[in-house]
Amino acid sequence: MKTIVKVILPVLVFTLASAAAVSTHESKINDSKKTVLITAYIQNPSPQSCESVAVNCSTVNTQQACMTSEATPRQAFDKDEANACNVNLYKIVE
């Protein structure tokens, strides 16, 4: 009986530890895929007159322009060195 416990217990502990490691790793991968709202700007009415908005977009070119979530969506931009809102942002494609 004692020999069975001495053999099975380490195997059981190893199996549980492996399962915990895999589930923790999957959780970290899922957390890294979560999107984060960033501050972007809409041109109101010109590129030098910017109004800040929160959007779920990125600077990575996905060929889809970043749009606001208003009833009438408008294109959102990031600011350049001259503080004008004319740097393209892109929709995050999952």
Could you give a short account of the major beta sheet? 2 strands, antiparallel
Physical arrangement of strands within the biggest beta sheet: 1-2
Give the strand tally: 6
Per DSSP, what share of the residues sits in E-state strands of 2 or more residues? 15-25%
User: Helicity range of the residues?
Assistant: 25-40%
Gap from first CA to last CA: 54 Å
Low-confidence stretches: none
Shape: rod-shaped
Topology as a string of helices (H) and strands (E): HEEEEEE
SSE class: alpha+beta
Average pLDDT across residues?
79
Q: Could you tell me the radius of gyration in angstroms?
A: 25 Å
Number of helices: 1
Please explain how this structure is put together.
The chain is of the alpha+beta class. It contains one helix and six strands, in the order H-E-E-E-E-E-E. The strands form three sheets. Strands 1-2 form a two-stranded antiparallel ribbon. A two-stranded antiparallel sheet has the order 3-6. The protein is rod-shaped. The mean pLDDT is 79.
Main features:
rod-shaped; 33% helix; single chain; 94 residues; 1 helix; two-stranded antiparallel ribbon; two-stranded antiparallel sheet; 24% strand; alpha+beta
List the helices and strands and how they pair.
Layout: H1 2-32, E1 38-43, E2 50-55, E3 57-58, E4 77-79, E5 85-88, E6 90-91
Short summary:
The protein is 33% helix and 24% strand.
